[in-house]
Design brief:
Distance between the termini: 91 Å
Helix content: 40-55%
Number of domains: 2
Radius of gyration: 30 Å
Number of strands: 4
Largest sheet: 4 strands, mixed
Shape: rod-shaped
Order of helices and strands: HEEEHEH
Length: 112
């Protein structure tokens, strides 16, 4: 059983349609490859997560609320990465350590 048309004009039409369809598929593949490459470049260019995070108060004048380890799931949206000495200084000034990630233990900070 042959499912192709027997005459030349319809075969040429089918050939043209298939060639156009193949071009569209190839264009979509190229676009998908570009998106994937861009995603990979973005992942490689992403800066490393900070080792320590200060969770800030509700406005710019309010004091910090918590000190967190860099990967803490409980760090709020108003957070900024800080270095070790800044995190230690904040703890010494009375900023609370996050009760979940316990950065004071990791920093070796002993109260008092």
């Amino acid at each position: 059983m042959n499912d192709l048309p027997p005459d030349l004009p319809r075969l040429r039409t089918l050939e043209t349609w298939l060639a156009m369809s193949l071009d569209r598929v190839r264009q979509q593949i190229a676009a998908a490859e570009r998106r994937e490459q861009e995603r990979e470049r973005g992942e490689q260019a992403r800066p490393p997560a900070p080792a320590w995070v200060l969770e800030l108060g509700l406005n710019r004048d309010s004091p910090a609320v918590y000190v967190h380890e860099g990967g803490c799931w409980n760090a709020g949206k108003r957070s900024k990465g800080v270095d070790r000495s800044t995190a230690l200084h904040a703890l010494a000034e009375g900023v609370a350590a996050c009760p979940h990630c316990r950065p004071d233990s990791e920093l070796g900070y002993l109260e008092g």
